[in-house]
């Protein structure tokens, strides 16, 4: 899945008054300075707008419609089917890469095509001791942890602010990080970006 999970964890070490060893340190090391850009995956729902050719666009811009029924679904093989150009594999591409590919394919039929593509179902799941657990739609590529917790209705009074578990599904691996909102790095932790 393309989601991050934020869990609130009460471990034996915290109950005994000691912090877990991986507090504020990822279990798997990654490049901190790496630029994140979401890649389209099978089962994503995408909106496609083709400038001056609404008949080639999806219906994602309807006012008041629910985004789950909008756009077009990327099938399990990573392919979308569009008028004129038929099947196009978009899975594994970033949104700008997919736009360029669609524009290149539409050039066979249109003069100067301009395409915009947006993934509609980017989200994170917040579970545990928050007032409103569940999926949270990410309108941007990322959201700070504190803002995500705010959208989830804030932590409950019983939540352990010293042990917030962030799980990131990255293909075949799950990265796990336990962070604290009460230590000296809490401002940095609160501003940690959560991505789809």
Mean pLDDT: 77
Show unreliable segments. Answer: 6-15, 27-34, 60-68
Number of helices: 4
Strand order of the largest sheet: 8-7-1-10-11
Rg: 20 Å
- Please report the total strand number as a whole number: 12
Shape: elongated
How would you classify the helix and strand content by structural class? alpha+beta
The helix/strand order is EHEEEEHEEEEHEEHE
Q: Helical proportion?
A: 10-25%
The N- and C-terminal alpha carbons lie at a distance of 9 Å
- Proportion of residues in extended strands: 25-35%
Largest sheet data: 5 strands, mixed
Task: Characterize this entry briefly.
The protein contains 4 helices and 12 strands; from the N terminus they run E-H-E-E-E-E-H-E-E-E-E-H-E-E-H-E.
SSE topology:
Blueprint: E1 4-8, H1 12-15, E2 45-50, E3 72-73, E4 79-82, E5 86-89, H2 95-106, E6 115-119, E7 123-126, E8 134-137, E9 143-144, H3 145-151, E10 164-170, E11 173-179, H4 186-190, E12 193-194
Parallel strand pairs: 1-7
Antiparallel strand pairs: 1-10, 2-3, 2-6, 4-5, 7-8, 9-12, 10-11
